[in-house]
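[job 0417] fold request received: Dihydrofolate reductase family protein
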Amino acid sequence: MRKIISFMHISLDGFVAGPNGEMNWIKVDEEIFDYVGKRISEGDTALYGRVTYQMMENYWPTAADQPGASRHDIEHSKWYNKVHKVVLSKTLKEAGLTNTTIIRDNLPDRINEIKQQAGGDILLFGSPSATHSLIQLNLIDGYWLFVNPIILGHGIPLFVDIKDKIKLNLLGTRPFTCGVTELNYTVDKQ
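[job 0417] inference complete; emitting structure tokens
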């Protein structure tokens, strides 16, 4: 069965965005781009909440065509255009969307159907609200976190309203020269 891996940048105190969704505190450099690019290039499905999807859709489809596009922009744009996108949204319409599935309701059944299909890990990018919903339904199988060297003090937390403990198994860590540390966990479902 395929696994859903939540990919997030996070502050040391557990926030994934500022109070108004600000992400200007996230540190990303070529070392991180190369590392992340290698791993996501193996994936064939990306999962987003509506807000994150619309942000991605406004940039990545044509990022490679822009004057001065970086190597990262070109590589990620190609990947984004070929990957199957799954979006959790009650309001988004599917008309005109390429290689995209919208899940409006029946979230556990629809997600489990996708997890049963052939393919690699399903990467859940950003999308704090979607992540919160999937955590509540025990549908996340792993966390790929990039801990940024900052304490925000307030903002949008990664973990909210956790009813039961979630036991994790550490797969690995990696420090980056910019001060970010990767933490890679699987969820212990036993």
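[job 0417] notes: The longest strand covers residues 4-11. Residues 4-187 form a domain with the Dihydrofolate Reductase, subunit A fold (CATH 3.40.430.10).
[job 0417] exit 0
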